[in-house]
Design goal:
With 231 residues, the chain is an alpha+beta fold.
């Protein structure tokens, strides 16, 4: 069971947050106040290259920036399974060692791992990871269901932060190029099929990344999925 029975009340706190950065922090703060966990790490996810990128974490020592963590989640079976089944996944013991990269093993006494997808509809836009839990906690099917529901509710809150104007943020050509990137097309393939130069393609990508306030094309595609611009 969760720490706090007012699960949905806690979720609604996120609606009251003004800035995107504060909302990301509150996602983890509410999570830790709701569930029997001792740490939490928030990642964005892009289907382009199956990339998970760290954003922030909360541990016993405080707030951490984890932007140096960037992984192909296909190398992390538990996270991959959580993303594609859109369900919270948990492992412990020997399975933990088999499924989790060494960089996620933060202390010697940790031997469990939880991955919670953040989704709206059928689209996964991120995930939360935890590897330290309250003493004597048992991760039951019911608790896993609650973790899954938290990820879904967070996805709905993030979806609501974007109005109809978001759909118009990119030009028609920028939208087409970014969609083609999300499908895995190369710059050359796009230039050949769209009958424009590779230089022009790269310029569309550059301006789309800037408009989406992303740092690279992977983050830009993830942001488009998060906003529901593409699905």
């Amino acid at each position: 069971m969760s720490k706090d029975s007012t699960f949905l009340d806690n979720i609604q706190i996120l609606d009251e947050v003004d800035t995107h950065e504060e909302k990301l922090y509150k996602i983890l703060e509410v999570y830790m106040n709701t569930f029997p966990v001792k740490n939490a790490y928030l990642f964005r996810y892009s289907p382009l290259g199956f990339i998970g990128e760290g954003i922030i974490g909360i541990t016993s020592i405080g707030l951490l920036h984890i932007r140096d963590i960037r992984d192909d989640i296909r190398s992390l079976p538990l996270i991959y399974s959580a993303i594609y089944e859109r369900k919270a996944k948990y492992c412990t013991g020997i399975e933990y060692l088999k499924q989790i990269n060494i960089k996620y093993i933060t202390t010697a006494n940790v031997n469990s791992f939880l991955a919670i997808p953040i989704c709206f509809g059928s689209v996964a836009i991120g995930y939360i990871c935890t590897n330290e839990f309250d003493d004597d906690v048992k991760i039951t099917d019911q608790l896993l269901f609650s973790f899954t529901e938290y990820g879904r509710q967070v996805g709905k809150i993030l979806e609501k932060t974007n109005g109809p104007e978001d759909l118009q943020i990119l030009s028609r050509r920028e939208m087409e190029v970014m969609k083609r990137i999300s499908w895995g097309e190369s710059i050359k393939e796009m230039a050949d099929s769209m009958l424009i130069s590779e230089v022009t393609i790269n310029q569309y990508i550059k301006t789309a990344i800037k408009k989406l306030k992303a740092q690279n094309r992977t983050q830009a595609i993830a942001e488009m999925f998060r906003r529901g611009i593409i699905s």
